[in-house]
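sorry for the late reply, my laptop died twice this morning and i had to redo everyting from scratch. anyway the thing you sent over, i finally got around to it. pasting the sequence first so we're on the same page, its 320 residues, then the predicted structure underneath. double check i copied it right bc i was rushing
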Amino acid sequence: MEESAQSAAKAPRSPGLAAQAQAQVPGIAFESRSPRYVLDKDVVLAASTRCQLDESVAKIHFHHQIYVDWGFAAVDPMGRSTILNFYGPPGTGKTMAAEAFAGTLGMDIVQISIAELESKFMGETAKNLKAAFRSAYELDAVLFFDEADTLLGKRLSSVTQGIDNEVNAMRSTLLIELERFDGIVIFATNFVRNYDEAFRSRITHHVHFDLPDLDTRKGIWGRMLIESIPLAEDRQAMIDDAAHRSEGLCGRDIRTCMRLALPKALLSAKAGGVAARLRAEDIEAAISEVKSASKAVGSPVGRERSETAQAAKKLLGIDS
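ok and here's the structure:
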Protein backbone atom coordinates (compact mmCIF):
# COMPACT_ATOMS: atom_id res chain seq x y z
CA MET A 1 0.00 0.00 0.00
CA GLU A 2 1.21 3.51 -0.78
CA GLU A 3 0.54 4.93 2.66
CA SER A 4 0.14 3.30 6.02
CA ALA A 5 -3.24 2.78 7.63
CA GLN A 6 -1.90 4.68 10.59
CA SER A 7 -1.37 7.80 8.48
CA ALA A 8 -4.96 7.58 7.27
CA ALA A 9 -6.20 7.78 10.84
CA LYS A 10 -5.51 10.67 13.17
CA ALA A 11 -1.92 10.87 14.40
CA PRO A 12 -1.49 8.54 17.39
CA ARG A 13 0.02 9.63 20.67
CA SER A 14 3.49 8.66 21.75
CA PRO A 15 3.87 5.04 22.95
CA GLY A 16 3.58 4.74 26.71
CA LEU A 17 1.18 7.65 27.09
CA ALA A 18 -1.79 5.95 25.48
CA ALA A 19 -2.54 3.56 28.32
CA GLN A 20 -2.63 6.40 30.86
CA ALA A 21 -4.49 8.96 28.78
CA GLN A 22 -8.07 9.79 29.56
CA ALA A 23 -10.63 12.41 28.59
CA GLN A 24 -12.35 14.27 31.38
CA VAL A 25 -16.01 15.02 30.80
CA PRO A 26 -18.63 16.10 33.30
CA GLY A 27 -19.53 13.23 35.59
CA ILE A 28 -17.53 10.48 33.86
CA ALA A 29 -14.13 9.64 32.39
CA PHE A 30 -13.39 6.92 29.86
CA GLU A 31 -9.83 5.66 29.54
CA SER A 32 -8.10 4.44 26.42
CA ARG A 33 -5.36 1.86 26.16
CA SER A 34 -2.86 0.73 23.56
CA PRO A 35 -3.95 -2.43 21.69
CA ARG A 36 -1.95 -5.59 22.30
CA TYR A 37 -2.73 -7.09 18.91
CA VAL A 38 -2.72 -6.39 15.18
CA LEU A 39 -4.72 -8.30 12.57
CA ASP A 40 -1.85 -9.64 10.45
CA LYS A 41 0.19 -11.12 13.26
CA ASP A 42 -2.13 -12.01 16.11
CA VAL A 43 -5.61 -12.98 14.88
CA VAL A 44 -6.59 -16.21 13.09
CA LEU A 45 -9.97 -15.96 11.37
CA ALA A 46 -11.91 -17.62 8.58
CA ALA A 47 -11.02 -16.27 5.13
CA SER A 48 -14.43 -14.62 4.62
CA THR A 49 -14.24 -12.80 7.96
CA ARG A 50 -10.69 -11.68 7.34
CA CYS A 51 -11.66 -10.37 3.89
CA GLN A 52 -14.40 -8.22 5.43
CA LEU A 53 -11.96 -6.80 7.98
CA ASP A 54 -9.38 -6.06 5.27
CA GLU A 55 -12.03 -4.20 3.26
CA SER A 56 -12.96 -2.18 6.36
CA VAL A 57 -9.32 -1.22 6.89
CA ALA A 58 -9.05 -0.32 3.20
CA LYS A 59 -11.98 2.11 3.47
CA ILE A 60 -10.05 3.98 6.16
CA HIS A 61 -6.69 3.61 4.47
CA PHE A 62 -7.88 4.89 1.08
CA HIS A 63 -10.37 7.42 2.43
CA HIS A 64 -8.79 10.40 0.67
CA GLN A 65 -8.66 8.63 -2.68
CA ILE A 66 -12.26 7.40 -2.47
CA TYR A 67 -13.92 10.49 -1.02
CA VAL A 68 -11.74 13.32 -2.35
CA ASP A 69 -9.92 12.15 -5.50
CA TRP A 70 -12.86 10.10 -6.74
CA GLY A 71 -15.43 12.56 -5.36
CA PHE A 72 -17.60 10.06 -3.48
CA ALA A 73 -18.05 12.62 -0.69
CA ALA A 74 -20.61 14.36 -2.92
CA VAL A 75 -23.09 11.54 -2.27
CA ASP A 76 -21.73 10.32 1.07
CA PRO A 77 -20.85 13.41 3.14
CA MET A 78 -20.81 11.38 6.39
CA GLY A 79 -18.35 8.85 4.99
CA ARG A 80 -15.40 9.84 7.15
CA SER A 81 -16.76 7.82 10.06
CA THR A 82 -16.60 4.03 10.03
CA ILE A 83 -19.09 1.99 12.04
CA LEU A 84 -18.56 -1.75 12.26
CA ASN A 85 -20.70 -4.52 13.70
CA PHE A 86 -19.00 -7.78 14.70
CA TYR A 87 -21.60 -10.50 15.20
CA GLY A 88 -21.55 -14.23 15.79
CA PRO A 89 -21.38 -16.92 18.50
CA PRO A 90 -19.47 -16.35 21.76
CA GLY A 91 -15.75 -17.04 21.75
CA THR A 92 -15.23 -16.54 18.01
CA GLY A 93 -12.77 -13.64 18.35
CA LYS A 94 -14.95 -10.53 18.13
CA THR A 95 -13.40 -8.71 21.08
CA MET A 96 -9.84 -9.62 20.14
CA ALA A 97 -10.47 -8.61 16.52
CA ALA A 98 -11.79 -5.21 17.66
CA GLU A 99 -8.59 -4.59 19.60
CA ALA A 100 -6.47 -5.84 16.70
CA PHE A 101 -8.41 -3.61 14.29
CA ALA A 102 -7.44 -0.59 16.38
CA GLY A 103 -3.86 -1.86 16.62
CA THR A 104 -3.66 -2.22 12.84
CA LEU A 105 -4.68 1.42 12.46
CA GLY A 106 -2.15 2.56 15.09
CA MET A 107 -4.96 3.88 17.30
CA ASP A 108 -5.87 3.38 20.94
CA ILE A 109 -9.12 1.73 21.98
CA VAL A 110 -11.83 2.78 24.43
CA GLN A 111 -13.65 -0.41 25.40
CA ILE A 112 -17.01 -0.11 27.13
CA SER A 113 -18.56 -3.23 28.62
CA ILE A 114 -22.05 -3.92 29.86
CA ALA A 115 -20.71 -4.07 33.42
CA GLU A 116 -19.59 -0.45 33.09
CA LEU A 117 -22.86 0.60 31.51
CA GLU A 118 -24.85 -0.83 34.40
CA SER A 119 -23.24 1.53 36.89
CA LYS A 120 -22.37 4.53 34.74
CA PHE A 121 -25.25 4.83 32.31
CA MET A 122 -28.33 4.37 34.44
CA GLY A 123 -30.20 7.60 35.11
CA GLU A 124 -28.05 9.84 32.89
CA THR A 125 -27.74 7.64 29.85
CA ALA A 126 -27.89 10.30 27.15
CA LYS A 127 -25.27 12.51 28.81
CA ASN A 128 -22.91 9.61 29.42
CA LEU A 129 -23.26 8.29 25.88
CA LYS A 130 -22.21 11.71 24.61
CA ALA A 131 -19.27 11.54 27.02
CA ALA A 132 -18.19 8.19 25.60
CA PHE A 133 -18.11 9.51 22.04
CA ARG A 134 -16.38 12.72 23.13
CA SER A 135 -13.78 10.71 25.04
CA ALA A 136 -13.03 8.54 22.02
CA TYR A 137 -12.66 11.62 19.81
CA GLU A 138 -10.43 13.50 22.24
CA LEU A 139 -8.30 10.42 22.89
CA ASP A 140 -8.02 9.64 19.16
CA ALA A 141 -9.30 6.14 19.90
CA VAL A 142 -11.52 3.48 18.41
CA LEU A 143 -14.75 3.28 20.43
CA PHE A 144 -15.75 -0.32 21.14
CA PHE A 145 -19.11 -1.37 22.64
CA ASP A 146 -19.39 -5.02 23.68
CA GLU A 147 -22.75 -6.82 24.10
CA ALA A 148 -24.13 -4.14 21.80
CA ASP A 149 -27.60 -5.64 21.33
CA THR A 150 -28.47 -4.08 24.69
CA LEU A 151 -27.71 -0.66 23.24
CA LEU A 152 -28.94 -1.15 19.68
CA GLY A 153 -32.24 -2.90 20.39
CA LYS A 154 -35.59 -1.69 19.15
CA ARG A 155 -36.94 1.51 20.64
CA LEU A 156 -40.01 1.07 22.80
CA SER A 157 -43.28 2.11 21.16
CA SER A 158 -45.35 1.81 24.33
CA VAL A 159 -43.87 3.96 27.10
CA THR A 160 -45.40 3.06 30.45
CA GLN A 161 -42.76 4.03 33.02
CA GLY A 162 -39.71 6.18 33.53
CA ILE A 163 -37.26 3.51 32.51
CA ASP A 164 -38.97 3.29 29.10
CA ASN A 165 -38.19 6.94 28.51
CA GLU A 166 -34.61 6.29 29.62
CA VAL A 167 -34.19 3.48 27.09
CA ASN A 168 -35.67 5.50 24.24
CA ALA A 169 -33.59 8.57 25.13
CA MET A 170 -30.44 6.46 25.17
CA ARG A 171 -31.16 4.98 21.74
CA SER A 172 -32.14 8.31 20.19
CA THR A 173 -28.94 9.88 21.51
CA LEU A 174 -26.90 6.98 20.14
CA LEU A 175 -28.40 7.46 16.69
CA ILE A 176 -27.47 11.15 16.76
CA GLU A 177 -23.94 10.46 17.99
CA LEU A 178 -23.36 7.88 15.28
CA GLU A 179 -24.44 10.38 12.62
CA ARG A 180 -22.12 13.13 13.79
CA PHE A 181 -19.12 11.10 15.03
CA ASP A 182 -15.93 11.63 13.03
CA GLY A 183 -14.17 8.42 13.98
CA ILE A 184 -14.37 4.64 14.27
CA VAL A 185 -16.97 2.73 16.28
CA ILE A 186 -17.14 -1.04 16.67
CA PHE A 187 -20.11 -2.91 18.11
CA ALA A 188 -19.98 -6.60 19.02
CA THR A 189 -22.88 -8.89 19.79
CA ASN A 190 -23.97 -12.51 20.06
CA PHE A 191 -27.59 -11.50 19.33
CA VAL A 192 -27.61 -9.43 16.14
CA ARG A 193 -31.31 -10.10 15.48
CA ASN A 194 -32.17 -7.81 18.39
CA TYR A 195 -30.89 -4.75 16.50
CA ASP A 196 -33.24 -1.94 15.54
CA GLU A 197 -33.38 -1.34 11.78
CA ALA A 198 -32.38 2.31 12.28
CA PHE A 199 -29.06 1.17 13.75
CA ARG A 200 -28.53 -1.63 11.24
CA SER A 201 -28.76 0.76 8.30
CA ARG A 202 -26.25 3.17 9.83
CA ILE A 203 -23.56 0.54 10.27
CA THR A 204 -20.91 0.63 7.55
CA HIS A 205 -19.70 -2.97 7.77
CA HIS A 206 -21.44 -6.02 9.23
CA VAL A 207 -18.70 -8.60 9.86
CA HIS A 208 -19.75 -12.16 10.63
CA PHE A 209 -17.67 -14.28 13.03
CA ASP A 210 -18.48 -17.98 12.94
CA LEU A 211 -17.09 -21.10 14.60
CA PRO A 212 -13.73 -21.88 12.98
CA ASP A 213 -13.62 -24.32 10.08
CA LEU A 214 -10.87 -26.92 9.76
CA ASP A 215 -8.30 -24.62 8.16
CA THR A 216 -9.00 -21.91 10.71
CA ARG A 217 -8.69 -24.41 13.57
CA LYS A 218 -5.33 -25.46 12.19
CA GLY A 219 -4.27 -21.83 12.22
CA ILE A 220 -5.44 -21.35 15.80
CA TRP A 221 -3.70 -24.52 17.01
CA GLY A 222 -0.58 -23.35 15.20
CA ARG A 223 -0.73 -20.12 17.17
CA MET A 224 -1.25 -21.98 20.44
CA LEU A 225 1.55 -24.50 19.95
CA ILE A 226 4.26 -21.87 20.16
CA GLU A 227 7.78 -22.88 19.19
CA SER A 228 9.16 -22.79 22.75
CA ILE A 229 6.80 -25.54 23.98
CA PRO A 230 8.65 -28.90 23.86
CA LEU A 231 6.64 -31.45 21.90
CA ALA A 232 6.76 -35.24 22.07
CA GLU A 233 5.71 -35.65 18.43
CA ASP A 234 5.89 -33.86 15.09
CA ARG A 235 4.43 -30.37 15.47
CA GLN A 236 2.41 -30.32 12.24
CA ALA A 237 1.00 -33.78 12.92
CA MET A 238 -0.14 -32.61 16.36
CA ILE A 239 -1.74 -29.49 14.86
CA ASP A 240 -3.61 -31.50 12.24
CA ASP A 241 -4.82 -34.06 14.78
CA ALA A 242 -5.97 -31.40 17.25
CA ALA A 243 -7.76 -29.45 14.49
CA HIS A 244 -9.76 -32.50 13.47
CA ARG A 245 -10.63 -33.44 17.05
CA SER A 246 -11.72 -29.91 18.01
CA GLU A 247 -14.53 -29.55 15.48
CA GLY A 248 -17.33 -27.45 16.96
CA LEU A 249 -15.05 -25.59 19.37
CA CYS A 250 -14.46 -21.84 19.14
CA GLY A 251 -11.11 -20.12 19.43
CA ARG A 252 -11.58 -19.45 23.12
CA ASP A 253 -12.35 -23.13 23.68
CA ILE A 254 -9.13 -24.09 21.92
CA ARG A 255 -7.14 -21.78 24.18
CA THR A 256 -8.85 -23.43 27.15
CA CYS A 257 -7.76 -26.81 25.81
CA MET A 258 -4.15 -25.65 25.82
CA ARG A 259 -4.50 -24.35 29.37
CA LEU A 260 -5.64 -27.84 30.40
CA ALA A 261 -3.14 -29.78 28.29
CA LEU A 262 0.08 -28.08 29.43
CA PRO A 263 -0.28 -29.00 33.14
CA LYS A 264 -1.10 -32.57 32.08
CA ALA A 265 2.26 -32.79 30.28
CA LEU A 266 4.13 -31.48 33.32
CA LEU A 267 2.40 -33.81 35.78
CA SER A 268 2.94 -36.81 33.51
CA ALA A 269 6.63 -36.00 33.16
CA LYS A 270 7.04 -35.58 36.91
CA ALA A 271 5.36 -38.92 37.60
CA GLY A 272 7.55 -40.69 35.05
CA GLY A 273 10.76 -38.90 35.97
CA VAL A 274 11.34 -37.70 32.41
CA ALA A 275 11.67 -34.35 30.68
CA ALA A 276 8.35 -32.61 30.17
CA ARG A 277 7.00 -32.68 26.63
CA LEU A 278 3.48 -31.96 25.41
CA ARG A 279 1.93 -35.05 23.88
CA ALA A 280 -0.95 -35.45 21.44
CA GLU A 281 -2.77 -37.47 24.10
CA ASP A 282 -2.58 -34.49 26.49
CA ILE A 283 -4.32 -32.32 23.92
CA GLU A 284 -6.83 -35.07 23.13
CA ALA A 285 -7.73 -35.42 26.81
CA ALA A 286 -8.12 -31.64 27.16
CA ILE A 287 -10.42 -31.47 24.12
CA SER A 288 -12.56 -34.23 25.59
CA GLU A 289 -12.83 -32.38 28.90
CA VAL A 290 -13.90 -29.14 27.21
CA LYS A 291 -16.50 -30.90 25.08
CA SER A 292 -17.82 -32.83 28.09
CA ALA A 293 -18.10 -29.61 30.10
CA SER A 294 -19.99 -28.00 27.24
CA LYS A 295 -22.58 -30.78 27.27
CA ALA A 296 -22.87 -30.98 31.05
CA VAL A 297 -22.83 -27.31 32.00
CA GLY A 298 -24.05 -25.55 28.88
CA SER A 299 -21.86 -23.37 26.74
CA PRO A 300 -18.70 -22.74 28.79
CA VAL A 301 -17.70 -19.87 26.57
CA GLY A 302 -19.28 -16.47 27.12
CA ARG A 303 -21.55 -17.67 29.92
CA GLU A 304 -20.56 -14.91 32.32
CA ARG A 305 -20.91 -12.29 29.59
CA SER A 306 -24.36 -13.58 28.67
CA GLU A 307 -25.47 -13.42 32.29
CA THR A 308 -24.10 -9.90 32.55
CA ALA A 309 -25.97 -8.89 29.41
CA GLN A 310 -29.22 -10.31 30.79
CA ALA A 311 -28.73 -8.35 34.01
CA ALA A 312 -28.18 -5.17 32.05
CA LYS A 313 -31.24 -5.79 29.90
CA LYS A 314 -33.34 -6.29 33.01
CA LEU A 315 -31.93 -3.09 34.47
CA LEU A 316 -32.85 -1.19 31.32
CA GLY A 317 -36.28 -2.78 31.08
CA ILE A 318 -35.48 -4.72 27.91
CA ASP A 319 -37.07 -8.08 27.14
CA SER A 320 -34.68 -10.92 26.28
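The CA atoms of residues 246 and 288 lie 9 Å apart.
thats about all i looked at so far, will dig more tmrw
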